[in-house]
């Protein structure tokens, strides 16, 4: 197994046709089977331009239609910021999903299916999709996992940007659900499908596609996934599918779309601050844990559903959630057009830096330590200082990004490239936090 640093040597790029098809799970076994993990393209990192293209298309079609989807800058930026942050750990380490998988394959595999067989490819497709179903179901039914996954459900809007609102901490639990596959399917095949599975779930986050006829029987579609994002009683704990909706039909969690879906958490958090969206649930869980009486109740707070209270069934009572009136209004504080323009421009700059960072990554242990100490210190400084200081910091960020963008900052020694990228990473976490702070 090569170190992640050596993987850089094998950066395979996808063609435009593949880039579009990978978003809809339409790649063939022939073009996406690889002998080694190192050869597997970083499909998700290369998806940014295709995501952007479809998001733009959705915005334009939304303008043209009178009842088009609602997209608000504040919500949009918070979703994209969460998406960017969720990918950061993978700049400095191989994903936990893949590391754990390779470990089980190396030590415990029962048989070795051939990596170049279409049968293995399809088996992995089904296996990863079912693994995702169970991971996703546990993420809703276990409070401790919900603490991470609630980030994805925190938007009160439903559009393509909602797909990118991913949790930073979720990756620390999802890995366990794919390990049975590691007993026989080579890691290089798994590494392809775990990416395709994630990518497929992008396009289903839209209100523009109403009904896909017979496809609704087999595939997870925009309609099915709208139900999953609803807070109407009929939507709660339904439609966990990734690519295939058959798992929900088989395991009894399927609900078709009926009443107009009202999106978001049953108790909306009404903020756009990324730090709050990502992490607020953990202290809340901690508090409920301490307040629960007796060890059995304490364990239930952690391992039963988010809606559970003493004396209630494992997943809580559906009658306890707030009623839907149809008059619900998403959180949308007023802010000046000048500030909107300022925040949007900064955000687009940031997006560009982010894309460059993903395209060209190098890794080292030194940098890893460097990353954590610096980010933490600056973060604390930034959060504890006044609004004014945050703006100064933001200007500094923009300056650094601009200098880097136009080629004025370049590493002298290739080995130094990473520390510089790391400090940029750091810069953009702070920028994300400052920007989203302005929104709330
Ligand atoms: Zn979910
Ligand atoms: Zn979703």
TrEMBL record:
The gene is agmo. It catalyses: 1-O-(1,2-saturated-alkyl)-sn-glycerol + (6R)-L-erythro-5,6,7,8-tetrahydrobiopterin + O2 = a 1-(1-hydroxyalkyl)-sn-glycerol + (6R)-L-erythro-6,7-dihydrobiopterin + H2O. Belongs to the sterol desaturase family. TMEM195 subfamily. Glyceryl-ether monooxygenase that cleaves the O-alkyl bond of ether lipids. Ether lipids are essential components of brain membranes. GO terms for cellular component: endoplasmic reticulum membrane. This is Alkylglycerol monooxygenase. Its EC number is 1.14.16.5. Its cofactor is Fe cation. The lineage of its organism: Eukaryota, Metazoa, Chordata, Craniata, Vertebrata. GO terms for molecular function: glyceryl-ether monooxygenase activity; iron ion binding. GO terms for biological process: lipid biosynthetic process; membrane lipid metabolic process. It is found in: Endoplasmic reticulum membrane. It is a multi-pass membrane protein. Its main location: endoplasmic reticulum. Residues 122-253 form the Fatty acid hydroxylase domain. Keywords: Endoplasmic reticulum, Iron, Lipid metabolism, Membrane, Oxidoreductase, Transmembrane, Transmembrane helix. Residues 339-422 form the Alkylglycerol monooxygenase C-terminal domain. PANTHER family: ALKYLGLYCEROL MONOOXYGENASE, STEROL DESATURASE-RELATED PROTEIN.
């Amino acid at each position: 197994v090569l170190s992640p640093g050596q993987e850089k040597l094998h950066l395979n790029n996808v063609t435009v046709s593949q880039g579009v098809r990978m978003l809809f799970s339409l790649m063939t076994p022939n073009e996406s089977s690889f002998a080694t993990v190192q050869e597997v393209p970083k499909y998700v990192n290369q998806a940014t331009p295709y995501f952007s293209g479809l998001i733009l298309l959705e915005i334009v079609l939304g303008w043209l239609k009178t009842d088009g989807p609602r997209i608000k800058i504040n919500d949009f930026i918070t979703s994209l910021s969460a998406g960017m942050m969720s990918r950061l750990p993978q700049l400095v380490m191989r994903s936990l999903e893949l590391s754990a998988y390779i470990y089980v394959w190396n030590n415990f595999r029962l048989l070795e299916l051939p990596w170049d067989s279409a049968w293995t490819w399809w088996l992995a497709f089904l296996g990863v999709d079912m693994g995702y179903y169970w991971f996703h179901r546990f993420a809703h039914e276990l409070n401790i996992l919900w603490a991470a996954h609630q980030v994805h459900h925190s938007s009160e809007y439903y559009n393509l940007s909602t797909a990118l609102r991913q949790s930073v901490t979720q990756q620390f639990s999802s890995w366990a659900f794919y390990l049975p596959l590691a007993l026989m399917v080579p890691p290089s095949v798994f590494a392809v499908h775990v990416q395709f599975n994630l990518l497929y779930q992008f396009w289903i986050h839209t209100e523009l596609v109403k009904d896909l006829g017979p496809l609704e029987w087999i595939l997870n579609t925009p309609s099915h996934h709208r139900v999953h994002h609803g807070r109407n009683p009929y939507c709660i704990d339904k439609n966990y599918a990734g690519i295939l909706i058959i798992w929900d039909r088989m395991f009894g969690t399927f609900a078709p779309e009926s009443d107009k879906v009202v999106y978001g958490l049953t108790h909306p958090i009404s903020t756009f601050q990324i730090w709050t969206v990502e992490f607020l649930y953990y202290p809340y869980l901690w508090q409920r844990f301490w307040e629960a009486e007796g060890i059995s109740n304490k364990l239930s707070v952690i391992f039963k559903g988010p809606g559970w209270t003493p004396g209630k069934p494992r997943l809580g009572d559906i009658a306890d959630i707030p009623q839907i009136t149809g008059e619900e209004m998403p959180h949308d504080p007023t802010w000046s057009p000048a500030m909107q323009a300022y925040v949007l421009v900064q955000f687009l700059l940031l997006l560009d830096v982010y894309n460059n960072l993903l395209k060209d990554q190098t890794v080292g242990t030194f940098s890893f330590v460097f990353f954590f100490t610096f980010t933490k210190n600056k973060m604390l400084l930034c959060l504890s200082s006044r609004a004014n200081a945050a703006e100064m910091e933001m200007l500094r960020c923009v300056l650094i990004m601009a200098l880097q963008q136009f080629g004025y900052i370049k590493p002298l020694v290739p080995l130094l490239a990473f520390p510089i990228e790391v400090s940029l990473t750091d810069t953009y976490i702070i920028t994300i936090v400052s920007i989203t702070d302005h929104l709330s």
